[in-house]
Amino acid sequence: MVRSNGNYDLDKDPFGQIHTLEAVTATMIMVSVIVFTVQATSLTPLTSSTANAHIEVQMQTMGQDMLNVLDRGSYGYISPLKQDIVSWNGQDFSWNGAAYCSVNAMEYDRLNSSTAKMLRDIAVPRGIAHNVLFMCIDSSGLPRGKAYIYNGDPSDNAVSVSRKVLLSDHYISEPVAFLANTGIPDTSLSSDFYNIVDVRLTFWRM
Length: 206
Known about the structure:
The protein has two domains: 10-40; 50-205, no CATH class. The protein is 35% helix and 22% strand. The protein is built from five helices and six strands. The strands form two sheets. The chain has a four-stranded antiparallel β-sheet. It has a two-stranded antiparallel ribbon with strand order 1-2.
């Protein structure tokens, strides 16, 4: 089709109409591609991000440092963490906003151990929820655990650290009562070795 060089009406020009239709079609295709891309990409605020991963690493480092410090004692003296284990009465405690109190409604005992004090001074002011579990090998040779501090079920972004503490017979002043209260048995009656307690600390953001 040969276009005339004479005067013509833009509204009736077939070339102008075709160009306009092509422009509208191209625009619709581009918009459709953008909409599809946005819908196919998850943009929820709960998606794991670099920032969340960094916070989890910080909590894990903080928890491990706390256990390392608690399990370090002066030469010839028992470490604070080991002392907390051997003096434990077998109850589990929970933070009530002011202190660690026994979960048992019939008891009003408060936990004043070194572990509780460090968690109260470091984790509580930062809004970090936490559980402490004592794991050991029972008399049948199987692992078992009992809560020392329990503040609820951890969230999906929780981190856990642990520290193994060696117990010897001379640290347990009343073996019968200690076993009855804590469920931690003497796994070697023929030696000074008593048991190994795996202290597991779990942190998560509220």
